[in-house]
Amino acid sequence: MRPGPGRQHPPAAPDATGTPAAAPRPARAERARDRHRYRRWLFVLAVVALLTQMAVAMVTTAVRQTPTIDEPVYVGAAEVYLREHSLRFNPEHPPLGKLVIASGLVFADVRLDPGFTGDQTQLGRRVLYESGNDPWRVMLAARLPVILLTLLFGLVVTAFARDLFGPAGALVALALYAFSPDVIAHGSLATLDVPATGFVLTSAWCLWRARERPRLWLPLAGAALGAALATKMSMLAAVPVVLLLVAVDRGKRRGWARGLAAAAGVGLVAVAVVWAAYLAVDPRLRWTTPEGVPAVHGLRGLVTSLLPFPEPYRDGMRLQFGFENATWDGFLFGRHYHGALWYYLPAALLVKTPLGMLVLWAAGAAALLAVPRLRPAAAYALVLPLVLLAAAMTGSRDLGVRYAVFMPVFGAVAAAGVAVVRRRWVHMAAAALVAFVAVSSLRTFPYYLPYSNEAFGGPARTHLRLHDSNVDWGQDLGRLADRLKERYPGEPVWLVYKGSGVPSYYGIQARNPLTVPPGQVRGLLLVSDSSVAKAEGRLAALLEEATPVDEVGHSITIYRR
After folding, report:
1. How many CA atoms lie within 13 A of 299 on its CB side?
2. Which of 26-32's residues contact partners 24+ apart within 8 Å by CB, and which partners?
3. Tens-place pLDDT, residues 51-74
């Protein structure tokens, strides 16, 4: 008779040789179940702890940063979506990411005069600073949905890595994701980079699961791909990879005709999601091509005209091609240049990725390629982000690793491959590297945007090697106002600020030093580090005769003249 709960088995009697008999099988099975239950709860607690740490980091960052350059445009467009169901603002980006932002604005009671007629930059300023709204409250409301979405994508990272490498690998992947300074920095902003990346990751995970249960997971993969396309147009580079993976996998299993049909089905679901995102804003899809949309010719023009997307999407693509045809300034390793460098993104990632994470990326990729049973996963965890990176490297805007934020996200999954290596020293080394990443991330708190790893001097020296959203995206205007009140009350202030905030709103009464003779510029000279990096002419002359005395948030330098 099996013992009931709480009863103990009697000691096993010795056999004829005097050796104690093995424990009864029910007891061994019960102990195994207890160990499994214990490990499962440890796993859940570890996941909760890692995501809680990430949530605290992102929310703390969000409440202390003033609007970055792109955020007011997205917030303004999102508010117009809610009020007027109009797509006329920010057409260069599809609406889904801004609908996510709008889900937070619903609770912020934002005021805005109907029928605003300015441009999208003026709209953002009107919403935040000229309509009686509290910009701190509005920005937090806009950022919280993106933060929540970033945390949910952490669960996708965990599930994807667990499917590939087991529970230990899942925790490695989640730890790298949760402590990634770039993911924390951009996941705490009301922008589109992390949402688009997360949807592509979700599509890849669903594709992996569809190998065994295609009827459930293939439609979900298509929906996730469509969500990515409805958030950022740069995710179009993922489409041929996703469809090829579907066709090859299903073709090998069920025949090539069915494989091609499955790929077509995934593509149709993705197209339907893009249409749904636009119709969610305006069910009548009212649209007039705005002035300034460039004509696009050649292969780009042909592809744009043939895509089965709404006309606003195609006009947005034409605007993006127009941006790509422009010449932008860049800054890399102390060199200010015009145009684009093909190696900019790999170099910037080398600076802004924790050293332990770089090592684990390489080790995990090696494991994926070396272990035969894992090689099929390489196409999902390695090839897809590398194709996206190759596409991004052809761009003309060297403005930050946010254009490649998919690398730390997919890299976290790939790095978990070290968990399958059956060497104790490998597991100990991996644990040490994850701890190194965590320490590096925690040390930069709360200044995640200007993070750089220890080999490049940390966040205090990032501005010497990179600029724009790598360092200084206008996020520290509020901190600058506090610093002036605390340390420099009453002193004359001159400001060169790169951002979308309004200094006077935060109590900064400053003049523009570039509009008066240099001899009149005396007192404090406050300069955004991106402006310092690209300083020429009059600003360069002013800085030559100025002495740096302080810095704010590793993004604004205070000089004295």
Report:
1. 0
2. 26/2
3. 999 999 999 999 999 999 999 999
